[in-house]
Write a structure and sequence with these properties.
Layout lengths: L17 H6 L18 H27 L9 H13 L2 H9 L9 H11 L5 H7 L2 H4 L4 H4 L1 H17 L14 E2 L1 H7 L14 H8 L6 E2 H12 L7 H17 L1 H21 L2 H9 L6 E2 L1 H11 L5 H8 L7 E2 H4 L2 H17 L2 H7 L7 E3 H10 L6 H8 L6 E3 L5 H8 L1 H13 L10 H12 L9 H13 L2 H9 L6 E2 L1 H10 L6 H7 L8 E2 H4 L1 H14 L2 H13 L10 E2 L1 H10 L6 H7 L8 E2 H9 L3 H26 L5 H40 L2 H9 L10 H11 L7 H16 L9 H4 L2 H17 L2 H8 L6 E3 H10 L6 H8 L6 E3 L5 H28 L17 H28 L2 H9 L8 H10 L7 H8 L11 H4 L1 H18 L2 H8 L6 E3 H10 L6 H8 L6 E3 L5 H41 L7 H31 L28 H12 L4 H8 L9 H7 L9 H8 L10 H4 L1 H18 L19 H11 L5 H8 L9 H4 ...
Antiparallel strand pairs: 1-2, 3-4, 5-6, 7-8, 9-10, 11-12, 13-14, 15-16
Helix pairs in contact: 3-4, 3-6, 9-11, 9-12, 14-15, 14-17, 19-20, 19-22, 20-23, 23-24, 32-35, 35-36, 37-38, 37-40, 38-39, 38-45, 39-40, 42-43, 43-46, 47-50, 48-49, 52-53, 53-56, 56-57
């Protein structure tokens, strides 16, 4: 009998048990130690002893486990164990959080991820308790602050301080080569962070330790993580991951919707207490805990809520703050800061003084142990208390007198520090203190006081005119330009008020215009001049004029003299900026020189005109000078514009036609010249290509045989033409020279004046440069590349070596073009000097020096007698090039031996698995070299090459070299992995497959069921070979343990646990039955309490009867269990009255409907609309059973469609299937969105209405979220957007949601679908907007049914040879349309009907096995010699 460690024996009558002892009065407890008979039965004694032994064993095992795993040493709670485990595995909790816990990078771990991560880390503690202790149930997730609050606070303060003092966090790694900083550089760059108020107490070394994920450095990735962590930004993950994360988040939000509402109600309630009573603690004492008991029952809480007139969810507040097993509300639940403040005070006192007692003794207050609020604040400051001290003082000051006793914080520490008498006297004094009366200030009085404290004088208020001047300077850089260009464009000198106000409004001035007019001291109807707007500018110009004096005339004369004669003084000339600034330095001008230049340059040309300076000098008043030179500037600009218009004016017709004729004739002549040159070039190129085959070859043989790199004149071109056979037939030498001069003019570019190969064939030089670059990348330098293939330094290599060099340098295109250029005569020799003469010369010198050094080295070692030092060391790494090819050739005999051995074994035993079983017995046996030779003996093959073949299969890496069957036949391991993957795709897990396939609970599967499983999973491998491998004992039964051992163990454990629970339930039922029978016999005797011998005899008879009936019952139960499968357990039978029925375990396997919804979610990304469109291709909106069975295959479902139909309609009265039955939850979500739009907007179409009122608006994701928020649609809104955004992922239109209105009838209490007609001509390959497809049979008669074909009868025996079958058609579920018919046909003949390809492949393989490669090469070579 098994017993859990938490279970206890039945001690109902034992007075020594805690339960019985607690219920009995103290004087009634009987001492049974001295009694001879203690009423302990033998069963009780044995059970108690077994329980003690089990607990002792469990404790010893737990201690051993804790001693091994550092995550469990000296733990006080599961949460601390999690922290210690992370710190032990990753050296700190922050690193553990980033590396293992926060797998999704969202700065929070949900429940599923939390459990999964802890299991992967090897955590064996109570995961759920750890989740609760870390605050998972309260917020629905665990954050870094829950695991390590100090580190989280350090990181947050560091980031805020860095952002405040330095800027972007990426500046921490800016300027480094590897974008990372070490500890010293980190501290040096973050010195300014300590100046921030947030990071004043941050230890930079601690911040570095928390931030660095790698040991010893902070990287750019660490900085980005810190920014996302503090700002709570989320990285944009890949699309598929974001969808998965979004779905999980949506589920969590739906599950915790009520919890969020309750938390909001709690926050509202606490806010109401603060508003009415100043704090939560004051409200608690005045409204809820009036008796000051510290606990509030629900009735008192309800009265307090009614007294506060709180309209929120009071039941939700009670559920949030009070656990189910609790009956009272305490202050710590309502205000968690109370408990934190108390703990913080004690911790800070211990950290500062060693203990609370020493802290009290160190405080030198006059009235201690009584302290006032000010003295308490001083105490908290000295001990560096981090939590809210005001909350702690308010908690301790129960009377509100502003004084507390230190004994209320820690009575024992206060007694030890001040004495008990002093503490009692302090308590008496505290009771006599009265609460000071304070006049209540209303919100109005407080507002009046605040306004009076912050009121400013009118003189200190901002000026409207100054604001306007600042606006004009911002837009035009100076007020002079603003006046000239925007306010007074006609240069009138003064403007009316209306014009002025219109101008400043157009410039964006939004201030008080009345106040502006009053500040300029103008009458309402008066005009405004520039001096009224900006007198400061007038004063600056006046100051410049007064200081410069007559020097202005000198500046004007100097500028006019520099411009030269012919310049009009009236129009003026530019004044050099250097001369102007030099003048300002001379007169010691104190103002802004740049701004003065802008004042005197209203046209913004970049300099001052002498005309402006002349006007300024001649006018006595600067107030009149500014409008005058603005007027002159305006007139000059107008004159300049008229000149530009005159310059672009169209000339007379006659002149225009003559000019056009001249341009046309010139263009025709140029075109004729270009065409003649082009024709001559094409004729020349065609001639040399026709004779030599390529331009590169012609250049080497005819045009530049001397390798001069160019043709510099026509004389050399004449010789080239003669060698190329381009001599004119008539005209002789003069015609040849004329042709050469013309061709030289055509071919030689004017920039260089010579003809090069690049001018005729630019591709060949480019290929040569590319070859050099690639060779340098591959070998390090061009010289090393040459030396690799020309180690003797001859200056030439073979054509074969050059081709290999090109392949090594990864030259793909143009290799033979280079070969024709370098070897035009076909000698199979490449001169390296043609590639690079300097490098070739350096190579020769290097090889000669290397040879001399080798000779000197040999002589040196010979003299010393150390000839062994001349031996070459073995190369490191993997051989490549010729060495690699040599090794591959050495492996050929072993590979051929293995292939021949496998061929003979297959021929004799039909499979390698059977051959292994016949020769060695156990297919899991590991073979050595000697055992491997038995295969050769089995097939009569020479075993001389067995050792090489064995080493080929098992490389000699260790002392023990063993060969496994999976290594001998690698296809078995590949098929097994493929089967696991297919099982996961079809059944979601191996456990689900085991439950469905293992009907009898034996965990064995026969051959036929295994083949059915492979067919169900669409397994494409060799299922017969795989079953033969899984059948260890050759009993035609495969153990599921070999398919997935981990899943096998989990399922075994689940079934064992279920069986234990069932046996326990049966035992309890028997005990209850026995007690009922005993009670019935006592009642018949009239003695309901006393035991008798009749009861014992009756119990023995019942036990004997049960034991006699047990074999018969077990036989019946065994038959019943063999008929029922684990996936569909039999229903529990109702027992007779008085006999408790044996409880049956609930089914664990999900239904077909649930599996089908999981398939749709994985296949269509969670979109019900996309899934339904794939099923309802004809637009019926409602499908009957036959239509559904035909269409469900398009979703990729490979199960029984009839069973799926029954599962989807289970518990429903419907006879047809619509979108609602596929997924009720998602359909209700979309229907709720429609109801919300109709309720808020009175019409569903108005949600997508544009400016014209028509539903033509397309909403992107943000606009759709705003609509959902406006109409109050149920969350999550992104899931709604993903449901409707079917045609385009960027937006949702009325066409995407109109089916809710058109295809469904919403009258009555339940919506009903409307059956539609089939859409004709709706093909997937048809473009939108194109005309409909013509109907009819067509000339190919695709719609006609083929004639029925039947097999002919034959009397011959069936063939036992298994033929080559077609491959699995992966596109079987894709309906054939006009758009994909050709693709389906191509796929059919290239991927499915591949029998002929496989036959050809087999014939080639057989030929390769029969004839070795060396023999074939010899035969081919011998044939060529005979032909030659």
């Amino acid at each position: 009998m098994s017993l859990d460690e938490d279970e206890a024996p039945d001690v109902e009558g034992d007075p020594e048990s805690p339960t019985v002892g607690a219920m009995m009065p103290q004087e009634d407890v009987i001492d049974m130690q001295g009694m001879a008979y203690t009423r302990h039965t033998t069963a009780y004694t044995r059970l108690n002893a077994a329980m003690v032994d089990m607990r002792t064993t469990k404790m010893e095992a737990t201690e051993r486990e804790h001693s091994v795993d550092p995550g469990f040493r000296a733990r006080s709670s599961p949460a601390d164990a999690v922290r210690m485990l992370l710190a032990a595995r990753h050296s700190s909790i922050v690193r553990g959080w980033r590396s293992s816990m926060d797998v999704r990078g969202v700065h929070g771990v949900m429940a599923n991820d939390f459990y999964t991560v802890l299991r992967k880390l090897g955590f064996t503690g109570d995961v759920r308790t750890a989740w609760d202790e870390l605050g998972g149930n309260a917020r629905g997730k665990v954050t870094l602050a829950d695991l390590d609050a100090d580190s989280a606070e350090v990181l947050g303060n560091f980031f805020r301080g860095f952002s405040e003092t330095i800027g972007n966090i990426l500046r921490l790694v800016e300027g480094t080569d590897s974008r990372r900083v070490g500890r010293e550089l980190f501290v040096e760059r973050c010195k300014q962070v300590k100046q921030s108020s947030d990071a004043a107490n941050v230890d930079l070394n601690v911040a570095f330790q928390c931030l660095s994920l790698e040991s010893g450095a902070v990287t750019e990735e660490d900085c980005l993580w810190l920014e996302y962590f503090v700002t709570r930004k989320q990285r944009p993950p890949p699309k598929t991951e974001r969808q998965i994360e979004f779905e999980e988040r949506t589920q969590v939000l739906q599950q915790e919707k009520k919890a969020h509402a309750r938390r909001r109600a709690v926050d509202d309630f606490k806010t109401l207490l603060r508003h009415q009573y100043g704090s939560v603690i004051a409200g608690w004492r005045k409204v809820l805990d009036k008796d000051n008991t510290g606990e509030v029952p629900f009735e008192a809480f309800e009265e307090g809520v009614e007294e506060l007139e709180f309209t929120g969810d009071k039941d939700g507040i009670w559920e949030e703050l009070v656990e189910e097993e609790e009956e009272f509300l305490v202050l710590e639940r309502l205000e968690p800061l109370v408990e934190k403040a108390q703990a913080s005070f004690v911790k800070s006192a211990v950290d500062a003084f060693g203990s609370v007692e020493k802290c009290f003794s160190a405080m030198a207050f006059e009235s201690r142990p009584l302290v006032t609020e000010q003295e308490f604040n001083v105490m908290c400051t000295e001990i560096n208390m981090k939590e809210n001290r005001r909350v702690l003082f308010e908690l301790l000051d129960k009377k509100g007198v502003g004084t507390i006793s230190l004994s209320e914080i820690d009575a024992e520490a206060a007694y030890n520090s001040f004495g008990k008498i002093a503490c009692d006297v302090a308590e008496e004094r505290l009771k006599k203190l009265e609460k000071p009366s304070k006049a209540h200030k209303t919100l109005y009085n407080r507002a009046v006081e605040q306004c009076g404290a912050t009121r400013r004088d009118p003189e200190t208020l901002p000026s409207a005119r100054e604001a306007l001047v600042a606006l004009l300077q911002e837009k035009f850089e100076t007020t002079v330009r603003a006046w000239a260009n925007a306010l007074d464009p006609n240069a009138k000198g003064k403007i009316k008020r209306k014009e002025f106000l219109t101008g400043i409004s157009s410039l964006g001035y939004a201030g008080n215009t009345t106040k502006l007019w009053e500040e300029m001291d103008l009458k309402p109807k008066s005009n405004i001049r520039f001096k009224d707007l900006c007198p400061e500018t007038v004063e600056e110009i006046k100051e410049f004029k007064m200081m410069a004096g007559k020097k202005i005339i000198g500046l004007i004369q100097g500028a006019e003299a520099a411009a030269g004669p012919g310049k009009s003084k009236k129009a003026g000339v530019p004044v050099s900026n250097d001369e102007f600034f030099k003048l300002l330095e001379t007169i010691d001008y104190q103002g802004d020189a740049e701004m003065l230049l802008k004042h005197l340059d209203p046209a913004n040309v970049g300099y001052v005109n002498t005309r402006t300076l002349r006007i300024l000098n001649e006018q006595k008043s600067e107030e009149k000078a500014i409008p005058q030179y603005l007027k002159k500037s305006r007139e000059a600009a107008k004159t300049q514009l008229e000149q530009k218009i005159e310059a672009v004016k169209v000339p007379p017709k006659k002149e225009l036609l003559a000019k056009q004729d001249k341009i046309l004739q010139t263009s025709r002549d140029d075109r004729k010249t270009r065409m003649d040159k082009k024709a001559a070039r094409e004729e020349f190129m065609k001639g040399i290509i026709g004779k030599f085959g390529s331009v590169a070859k012609a250049w080497r043989l005819a045009l530049d045989p001397e390798n001069a790199k160019n043709i510099e004149n026509s004389d050399r071109l004449i010789k080239a033409l003669k060698r190329a056979g381009q001599v004119p037939e008539e005209g002789g030498e003069s015609a040849l020279r004329k042709k050469a001069e013309f061709l030289f003019d055509v071919l030689a570019p004017p920039q260089t004046g010579v003809i090069t190969l690049e001018d005729l064939d630019p591709l060949t030089p480019a290929l040569m440069e590319k070859f050099k670059d690639q060779a340098e990348l591959r070998f390090g330098s061009l010289q090393e590349a040459f030396e690799h293939y020309d180690p003797e330094g001859t200056g030439s290599i073979s054509k074969k070596d050059f081709l290999h060099l090109c392949q090594s340098a990864q030259i793909i295109d143009g290799i033979y073009r280079l070969v024709e250029f370098l070897d035009p005569k076909g000698n199979n020799v490449i001169q390296l000097k043609l590639i690079d003469a300097e490098v070739t010369q350096d190579l020769k010198k290097h090889v000669e020096a290397k040879k001399e050094a080798e000779e000197a080295k040999k002589e040196y070692y010979k003299k010393k007698g150390s000839e062994h030092m001349l031996l070459k060391a073995k190369p490191f790494g993997v051989a490549c090039g010729p060495d690699h090819a040599r090794e591959e050739r050495a492996k050929k005999p072993a590979q051929q031996t293995i292939a021949e051995l496998k061929r003979r074994l297959l021929k004799k035993h039909r499979s390698l698995v059977r051959a292994w079983r016949v020769v060695h017995g156990n297919i899991r046996k590991e073979l050595g070299s000697d055992s491997f030779k038995k295969f050769f003996e089995e097939v009569d093959l020479d075993n001389s090459g067995s050792k090489a073949a064995f080493e080929m299969l098992v490389p000699p890496q260790g002392k023990k070299q063993k060969l496994l069957l999976k290594e001998f036949d690698p296809g078995i391991a590949a098929d097994l992995e493929d089967l696991k993957q297919k099982i996961a795709e079809r059944y979601t897990s191996s456990i689900a497959m085991f439950k469905e396939v293992d009907e009898d609970g034996s965990m064995l599967i026969d051959h036929n069921k295994f083949l059915e499983l492979c067919y169900e999973c669409k397994f494409k491998g060799n299922e017969h070979r795989l079953f033969e491998y899984l059948d260890r004992k050759d009993e035609k039964l495969a153990d599921m343990k070999d398919i997935d051992e981990e899943a096998y163990k989990k399922l075994k454990a689940q079934r064992a646990e279920q069986e234990a629970k069932r046996q326990e339930a049966i035992k309890k039922a028997k005990e209850a039955k026995k007690k009922a029978a005993r009670a019935a016999r006592r009642k018949e005797r009239g003695d309901e309490f006393a035991d008798s011998d009749e009861d014992s005899e009756a119990d023995k008879e019942d036990e004997e009867g049960e034991e006699g009936e047990k074999p018969e019952k077990e036989k019946k139960e065994g038959n019943t269990e063999s008929k029922s499968s684990p996936s569909s357990p039999s229903k529990a039978k109702k027992g007779k009255p008085g006999k408790p029925a044996t409880p049956e375990l609930p089914p664990q396997t999900p239904s077909l409907a649930e599996n089908f919804r999981v398939l749709l979610e994985r296949r269509f990304g969670g979109s019900l609309v996309k899934a339904w469109k794939a099923i309802d291709t004809h637009g019926h909106n409602v499908l009957n059973k036959n239509e559904f069975i035909k269409a469900v295959g398009s979703t990729g479902y490979a199960g029984n469609p009839s069973a799926l139909w029954t599962s989807l309609l289970e518990g429903s009265q419907e006879t047809q299937i619509s979108m609602r039955e596929i997924d009720v939850k998602q359909f209700r979500h979309m229907a709720a969105f429609r109801r919300a739009c109709k309720r808020s907007l009175d019409n569903f179409e108005k949600a997508f209405a544009d400016e014209s009122g028509q539903p033509g608006n397309v909403l992107d994701e943000n606009a759709f979220m705003e609509l959902c928020k406006k109409v109050g649609a149920p969350k999550p809104w992104p899931r709604l957007f993903a449901q409707f955004a079917v045609k385009s992922a960027d937006g949702v239109s009325w066409d995407d949601v109109s089916w809710l209105e058109e295809n469904w009838n919403w009258q009555g209490t339940k919506e009903t679908p409307i059956r539609g007609f089939a859409r004709l001509g709706d093909f997937h390959g048809q473009l939108p907007g194109s005309p409909p497809r013509t109907s009819g049979t067509g000339h190919l008669c695709f719609s006609m049914r083929p004639r029925q074909v039947s097999l002919k009868k034959t009397s011959s025996l069936p063939s036992l040879k298994i033929g080559i079958r077609a491959q699995w058609n992966d596109r079987w579920h894709i309906h054939e349309t006009i758009g994909n018919r050709d693709m389906n046909l191509i796929h059919l003949y290239t991927k499915v009907q591949t029998q002929e390809q496989e036959k050809t492949d087999q014939r080639c393989r057989k030929k390769l096995i029969e004839t070795s490669t060396i023999q074939w090469l010899e035969e081919q070579g011998g044939g060529e010699e005979d032909s030659n």
